[in-house]
Amino acid sequence: MSFLARSLAGPMIWAVTFSVVYALHGAGCALGWDGVSAGPVSLHRAALVGSWILGLIAGLALLLRLPASGGLHAGLPRAGAWTGLVATLFTLFPVLVTSSCDTARALAVNFFIPV
Amino acid sequence: MTDAYIGTATGTRATTDEIKSDAPQRALGLHRELDRTWANDPGWRGQISAVNHTTLGLRFMGTALVFFAIGGILAMLIRTQLATPEGAFLDTEIYNQIFTMHGSIMMFLFAIPMLEGLAIYMLPKILGTRDLAFPRLTALGYWCYLFGGLILLFALLGGVAPREGWFMYTPLSGATYSPGINADVWLLGVTFVEISALAAAVEITVTILRQRAPGMKLTEMPLFAWYMLGTSVMMLVGFPPLILASVLLEIERAFGWPFFEVARGGDPLLWQHLFWLFGHPEVYIIFLPAAGALSTIIPVMCRTTILGYGAIVAAIVALVFLSFGLWVHHMFTVGIPHMALAFFSAASVLVAVPTAVQVFAWIGTMWKGRPDMHLPMYHIMGFFLTFVMGGLTGVMLAIVPFNWQAHDTHFVVAHLHYVLIGGFVFPMMAAAAYWMPQITGRARIKGLGEAAFWTILIGFHGTFFLMHLTGLLGMPRRIDVYPDNPEWIWLNLTSSIFGFVMTIGFALFALDLVLQAWLGPRSPRDPWRAPGLDWAMRLPPPSYNFASLPGPGRLDGGAQAAQGLARGEGLLPGAPRGRREVLVTGVGSARPELIAILPGNTALPLGLACAIGAFVLMMLSGLYWLTLPALALVAALIWVWARGMAQGHDAAPVEVAPGLSLPVHIHRHDTLGRTGTVCLLLADGTLFAALLFGVGFLSVVAPGWPPPELTGDPKLGAGLIAGLVGGLGLGAIAVRLGLRAQGNGGAVLPAAAVAFIANLAALACLIWLAVAVLDDPTRHARDALRGVLAGYAGLHALIAAGMAGYALDQARRGEIAGTRAGCMPAWRLWQDFAAVTALIAGAILIAQGSGA
After folding, report:
1. Closest by CA position to B616, among listed B203, B194, B177, B139
2. Which A residues 39-98 touch B at CB under 8 Å?
3. Class in CATH terms, B49-295+603-625
4. pLDDT tens string B119-148
5. In whole angstroms, what is the distance from residue B62 CA to residue B275 CA?
6. Which CATH number is B706-851's, of 1.10.150, 1.10.287, 1.10.10, 1.20.120?
7. ipTM of the complex
């Protein structure tokens, strides 16, 4: 891999994971995956968390493959790999903790507007 | 393929350390020889035929400053209207046009062209080359920018300017709520201007990757080049979604294809997604060049070197990527599910980290060095104060609950002005103060610049700091009167008064520039004792930048390097062959690889921009059939453009330095043109991906689906799609066979002829598909999207056929023969791309059919 490709690989893993998770999120809400069970969680949650974990594994594998020293020539790819890994972890962690398809309007209707 | 290193010291491939210096020559003789070759034509002809980057960079920046002044005057009209609660200065219709034009001018006609102009002017000088990779493209970009801008300005003078806000939200900008041509002016005018942005992005990327001085590795190049590389790649990826959105909305308005109209399966949110896919990266597209200027200027002003070079480069890479994951934070209030809000909120917070890395690196550089408070440092201090505040309110707006409260209020107006003026205008003023001696050869007149700085700083914060409060008190954007809200009166009045103070400051700044260029005393050669190659030349710079090009051992630049380079002690001295020659180097290693011969002065870019302008004006006038002759003229001029660089005979290798000769580009496949094609296809691929996003988004999210059943014969449709993809695929095979034949010294003509016919057959299949199978595109958004997918594949097949025809012509003329591959390497890339995208588009068309 060329220097530029190695440097961009980490952020690229984040970009792909982010796009896949966002697309699966939209598709899953539209197709009703939230109501389909896949073991202890919904099919939607399983698809999202599974994609996220795959992205994290890819980012971690890239980080472990890169040499630990060698000036900027090795440092930039490592920084890129760390960027990708941290960004994947931080921007997509909501797949673990938030409701998947509720909107603000739905919440407002459920909690604040008396029926 | 010809060896890149003929007769090197070792007899094999040379490292940059082995390149020897040329013997010194008489500097004046070299100057005359080079100036004859590189200078603009004399007189009025020189005004229309110039392709030189120095001339065009200055034109871009000068024109951008004029538009900045116009946008500023519009801002003053807005502030005058808002100074009192029931202002009668402007009526609502004119007010709407003025705030729309203020935002559009500042974004599309000032900020982007200004950064393009700075890059066009500076990059070749900083990288140690004589011009950008595609000088005619630079000129085409300038004319497209000027003509597109003039269309918008004349519309304003004629009272038909766009009035829907600078982000042109649908359905307000659709035909129902915006009849007339106002919205069309924006869609067509801004898209016309964006041609210049894409042109600049392609050549900036290629120039940085392939035209750095030998020995200037990527890991060692000046930070300004890293910043511009990040910016140009972001432009290649960021602009296509907006171009697609503009094209779709214009098609909806002109021909009734419903992409954004809910009743027929469209969705206004598709516009918002596509717009902000461009719009948020745009903020960083504007900020990164300014940050590049800061990273150049701060170490010089502080008499030290930059702190954390590697960390800054990593931060640039992070910013380039993360900035594409934030766009939905402009849409937090539209009813998006919580989880998606959380993704984009987290990304919006995270992007502050690489920004902070840069800010701390600059602060650390100042701490490490000994800051001299020259005028550029005043503006840099203004940047720190303003941009950090804007960045912090940005983090506030990234938090969803706060965003819901502040959305669409003057708090957001204040935030964006803190970011854009803090992150772009103050650094650009620092850059102007820093590089004006380089541009004009004159020192500034002391005092005026400092007065301008303080007036602008006080005026800016007086205007916009208070606007945060106005927004928190609930004042929405874009209103022209507020008779029932007395609590906003004194804040608005004060903002208006300080707005005029700021305007006086900008007038002083402009006066300072004019006086320096006109009356300033002569500047010493390197007044700041800066190390860059941009100072290793005569001031003001000659048309060719360097009499001989810097190489290993001369990359530190500054005044010390200037004399040796002027005496021809560097590489490729003079212009003994009377051609515009530049050195092309490897992407990572910066090893010299070949010599590119650039085109000379020509009015062709102006002619092509006029032809594109004719197309735009015909669209605006509703004379749609007359767009066809305009497009034919565009195609004919592109053919003439390509013919201008064709060469029917071999070119001898050029001696770059003693013992080092390099082949001319016509004998190589890895030319600048091929790298440029890769960049263009990156942008094209992004546009296609944005179109696929549109297909997916409407199919999944839009109301009004499922659509009516398809009426075309699915078997015939599948057969015609197979014919389309098969024709383009056959063309791709034929190109490869042609290249193999060329490499073996065989005939290319048969392969080019087969590819030409295969592409025409693919096109015929597509036309048949459109006529016999596809449904009326005005029926439903699904049918409109099918029409666009087919149109996209058809346009690419048409261009592929044109390139095959051009290769056929080149083979017939003997221009593709021996080691000369002509247009074939670039054509191969295009042909492959057309085949792959047609395959994807065809698969979607078939899947939609089976789904129905």
Report:
1. B194
2. 48, 71-73, 75-76, 79-80, 83-84, 86-87, 90-95, 97-98
3. mainly alpha
4. 999 999 999 999 999 999 999 999 999 999
5. 28
6. 1.20.120
7. 0.92
